[in-house]
Amino acid sequence: MLIGFFFGACSKDDNNPTNPTTPNSFQELNVAPTFDWSTSSELSLNIQGLPTVNPINRTLVILDQEGRVVHKETWQMSASGVVNLNLPAYMSEITVRYGAIEKVVAIESNGTASFSFIPTVVDDTE
Question: What CATH number does domain 40-116 carry, 3.40.50, 1.25.40, 2.60.40, 1.10.10?
Fold first, then answer.
């Protein structure tokens, strides 16, 4: 009975093609027309400015999930605008630094993210 189990486990797999071929080039690949080949995606980071009495200029630094700098520029705190980036498609969040302000920002499914200079206040009294 044990021998039958071993031989039964070695049965032919009918789901495999009888004559598989290995393509020699990308042109020979049979790929669905809806397949997305891109490994990167466009991100529009919307920045909401914060009005200030005096102009405040700092370096705006954007980091990917691994902590690598993907963008850096001088930004005036009172300015609103959009920063367009090309990031790996698997990224789900970025980190934005501006002086002492640092926020982790989620990337939405539509390829946008939003950043505000208003710091997040945490109530430590509870």
Answer: 2.60.40
